[in-house]
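Lab meeting, item 3. Inverse folding demo.
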């Protein structure tokens, strides 16, 4: 029998929220008159009279959670056990109130499709697209609900404080998690991993008054509690405007890097250099004239690529390792490529293989379109009150004044520069008239400006991954594109588990075509370490080189561009005698061709070398804790489970894996596990969907 016809189990979990519970029980009782169902109130250690009131009323069943009940998950487990009848489950925190008709609309949407596991309402507490109104009263919420359509929007993200679960999905509840947010996020990950989805019901509206009472849960696991609150706080920053601009995404990298360095006590407590000034550099008029000429000659095309000056030498040309093969997969008459440079370099441009490429010097844009003044007092107030103060209170830290000052200067710089870029992009898009805009490295400010304009114009955007980091929960003001193309279905699946259903696993065209792994010309076993500026990777390389037999092993350290000018590295390598330092002059494919073993921690190069089946690939476990939700180890562990990568827990295991290597072994029997072999076809089909029907 369909659970929709078996009534509903509505569960309110409250702690010292007597007034809210009284009102909520009355509202839910009225709602359940038409849909049928039962209300259960769980009193979680209240001392405000809630227990006495529950014992004297007849509208709701109740449970008393005494002090021995360890957390939110245990409460959910008992509810499931006591009411194991398969009914749909409505979980509502006590201070959330649903408007008339919301329960019926949610239950109808829940059973509209078999793959919907849970539904939720829109509300005044949800960040991003689902925060549809700012009302704080029952009347305001009901009035808003009256104007909404009856449909539902599929999503991978719901408000964890008010959800209706399909009866068949109740078994996925995380009854071990002690913190409410952790328990519900655990549930969401489990059902998303099963291929099920969620939906937001537009006509179902809730509003919250005051904060939920989380005191009983904070004590169980303070670290998890703080992490969950931080996740929600960082997500909510996407809704903060400063002088009309959603500013957090421009400051996000600086804030997270600072917090990560503090958390891990990196660089001997010397944090990253603060943003120095808000002065926007202007080009000469002669250089600006070249940009004007480029604009005047832009052709009309269906696809607009916008790329950064991140080319590397390979086989006599300067190529974009992140995006070149995608561009070359398409017919030339379909696209235009605008490419940003910090300085003019005709020789460099002439060596680039990209067709239809129009080079631009960044500083010409503010020269042409001007730089407005900013209100620094307003910026300081916004940054300190909206971002710094909440983080300091939650994390019990004090941000260094130099960092805060730099953050304010960066915000001012963004507001100045953004104006000119928005005007430039507006003119360029008007000439090209693209149906889709594609780029890589979307966090770069010049591309984030583009993202802001495409949101305004309604043009779909696609960001091509330049690494393998999981892409977290979708929020249109925090995402750097509408959709994110990643190199593997594994990365897409992990992103979906985090709540981002805008991630598409495509692969990368041509990764197998350039695989050349002849017999090694070296009598030595060559171990190449690939740096992505992880501070701990060089000590691994140095210590391994010192330990290995210099007559049998050579260690190559491929330094990141940010550390190649470090004079200490060549000196250390020279002293060791069996270590070499290389930089951008060697492409990762060239490194793979001359190596026996490749070692990395977080670098995407770990995955770039997987198409070389005779190459042993070792990933050393990442010990760094990241304050955001990004967990590089999850992707690496998923690939390691397929047998393509060896995981080394520490220096000792790394050493054992190196000395156990035997030349001539094939380390990957199926080299398509991570990289799809039909990436070119997938990419073309995806672009055709944009051009023919759109996928927004």
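The presenter then showed the designed sequence:
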């Amino acid at each position: 029998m369909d659970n929709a016809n078996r009534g509903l189990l509505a569960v309110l979990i409250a702690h010292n929220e007597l007034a809210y519970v009284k009102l909520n029980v009355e509202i839910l009782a009225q709602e359940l008159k038409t849909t049928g169902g039962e209300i259960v109130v769980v009193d979680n250690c209240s001392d405000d009279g809630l227990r006495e009131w529950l014992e004297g009323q007849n509208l709701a069943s109740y449970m008393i959670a005494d002090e021995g009940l360890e957390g939110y998950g245990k409460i959910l487990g008992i509810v499931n056990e006591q009411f194991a009848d398969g009914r749909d489950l409505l979980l509502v925190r006590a201070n959330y109130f649903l408007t008339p008709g919301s329960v019926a609309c949610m239950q109808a949407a829940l059973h509209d499709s078999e793959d919907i596991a849970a539904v939720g309402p829109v509300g005044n507490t949800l960040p991003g697209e689902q925060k549809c109104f700012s009302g704080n009263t029952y009347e305001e919420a009901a009035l808003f609900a009256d104007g909404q359509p009856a449909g539902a929007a599929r999503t991978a993200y719901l408000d964890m404080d008010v959800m209706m679960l399909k009866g068949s999905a109740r078994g996925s509840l995380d009854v071990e998690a002690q913190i409410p947010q952790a328990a519900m996020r655990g549930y969401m990950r489990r059902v998303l991993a099963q291929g099920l989805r969620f939906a937001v019901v537009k006509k179902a509206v809730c509003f919250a008054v005051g904060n939920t009472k989380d005191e009983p849960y904070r004590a169980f696991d303070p670290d998890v509690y703080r992490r969950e609150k931080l996740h929600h706080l960082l997500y909510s920053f996407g809704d903060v405007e400063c002088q009309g601009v959603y500013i957090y995404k421009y400051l996000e990298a600086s804030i997270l890097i600072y917090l990560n360095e503090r958390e891990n006590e990196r660089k001997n407590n010397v944090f990253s250099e603060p943003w120095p000034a808000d002065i926007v550099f202007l080009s000469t008029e002669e250089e600006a004239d070249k940009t004007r000429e480029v604009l005047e000659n832009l052709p009309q095309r269906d696809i607009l690529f916008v790329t950064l000056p991140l080319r590397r030498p390979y086989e006599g040309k300067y190529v974009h390792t992140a995006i070149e093969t995608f561009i070359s997969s398409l017919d030339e008459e379909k696209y235009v490529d605008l490419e940003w440079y910090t300085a003019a370099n005709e020789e460099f441009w002439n060596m680039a293989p990209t067709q239809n490429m129009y080079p631009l010097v960044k500083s010409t844009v503010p020269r042409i379109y001007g730089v407005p003044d900013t209100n620094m007092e307003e910026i300081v107030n916004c940054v300190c009150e909206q971002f710094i103060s909440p983080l300091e209170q939650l994390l019990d830290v004090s941000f260094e004044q130099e960092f805060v000052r730099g953050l304010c200067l960066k915000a001012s710089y963004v507001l100045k520069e953004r104006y000119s870029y928005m005007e430039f992009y507006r003119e360029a898009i008007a000439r090209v008239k693209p149906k889709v805009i594609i780029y890589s490295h979307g966090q770069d400010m010049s591309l984030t400006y583009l993202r802001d304009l495409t949101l305004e114009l309604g043009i779909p955007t696609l960001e091509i991954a330049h690494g393998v980091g999981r892409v977290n929960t979708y929020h249109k003001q925090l995402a750097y594109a509408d959709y994110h193309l990643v190199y593997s279905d594994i990365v897409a699946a992990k992103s979906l588990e985090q709540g981002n259903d805008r991630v598409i696993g495509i692969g990368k065209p041509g990764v197998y075509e350039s695989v050349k792994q002849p017999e090694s010309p070296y009598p030595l076993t060559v171990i190449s370490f690939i740096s992505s500026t992880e501070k701990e990777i060089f000590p691994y390389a140095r210590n391994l080189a010192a330990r290995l037999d210099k007559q049998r092993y050579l260690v190559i350290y491929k330094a990141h561009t940010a550390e190649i000018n470090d004079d200490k590295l060549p000196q250390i390598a020279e002293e060791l005698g069996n270590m070499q330092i290389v930089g951008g002059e060697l492409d990762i494919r060239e490194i793979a061709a001359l190596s026996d073993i490749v070692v990395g921690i977080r670098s995407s190069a770990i995955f770039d070398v997987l198409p070389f089946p005779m190459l042993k690939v070792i990933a050393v476990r990442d010990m760094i804790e990241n304050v955001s939700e990004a967990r590089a180890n999850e992707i690496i562990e998923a690939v390691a489970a397929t047998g393509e990568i060896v995981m080394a827990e520490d220096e000792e295991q790394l050493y054992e894996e190196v000395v156990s290597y035997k030349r001539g072994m094939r380390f990957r029997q199926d080299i398509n596990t991570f990289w799809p072999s039909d990436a070119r076809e997938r990419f073309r089909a995806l672009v055709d969907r944009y051009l023919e029907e759109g996928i927004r």
